[in-house]
Amino acid sequence: GEGPALVRYYMGHPSFLADSNSLLAGLGAERGLFDYPENFLAFEGLEAAHGVESVRRFVALLVQGRAWAMALEEVSGEPWSAFRDHARSRAQEALAKFADPTLADYRRVAGLAREAEAAGASAASSPPDGAAAKLRILEAARVFLAEHPGSTYRSSVLFFEGRALRRAGNPTEARERLLAVLAPSAGRSGYEADALHELAELEEAAQRWSEAAAHFQRLVSERPDSPLLGDALYRWGINLQKSGQSGAARPLLEKALASF
Questions:
Q1: Where are the alpha helices (DSSP H) in the chain?
Q2: What is the pLDDT of residues 85-113, one digit of tens each?
Q3: At what angle do helices 52-63 and 68-76 cross, to 10 degrees?
Q4: Contacts of 109 (CB under 8 A, 6+ apart)
Q5: pTM
């Protein structure tokens, strides 16, 4: 059950939404973000075409030191290039089988969230344009969450809603949604680091320096691979300093400055 659930999770990832072929590289491809679902889909295809014993033989050959391509050729009886093409086709079939039925609605909400952020960041956007974009994402998120409470993408939509609420000047409801993204029961969204960053900025705006520092600290400790890491480290130190903890802030600021 874990395999299909993770595939559904990755199907909601921004990289997949931008390129629906990004889960089709399969076994032996260059390592990257989608290694797990790519390999899972390829194993699904190998088992479907050649039986479960083929998967066991393939793993045994890898343990013996055989290269991916050679092991697959031996197990499948196909040249590597033919297996790769067949695997891509089977992966597309598996994606259709595993897809969360709410994916199409989620794609629409994610698109509106991108539009709202772009309108807010663009100097060319007039205030009415930005306000209309916020209203569109807020309404779409509300409808999605009401209609699909069990969706794989619920946590992601909560993040989009929380971010939009913050941009719309509603910090109380924004905080509630963003904290819900981080709840143990929420499931994965891929936006946990972003939610922590948004929460920290909410606390900064309210001049709650200790609370802001705690969110930045959590981002640094729990999401060390996040692109937000450098900024979070620096602002963790700044907020500690503002809360009167200059001694604790100094090494963090030195580390942050050294990383730039």
A1: 2-11, 14-18, 35-50, 52-63, 68-76, 80-98, 103-121, 127-147, 154-167, 171-182, 192-205, 209-222, 229-242, 246-259
A2: 777 777 777 777 777 889 889 989 999 99
A3: 150
A4: 137, 140, 141, 144, 153, 157, 160
A5: 0.74
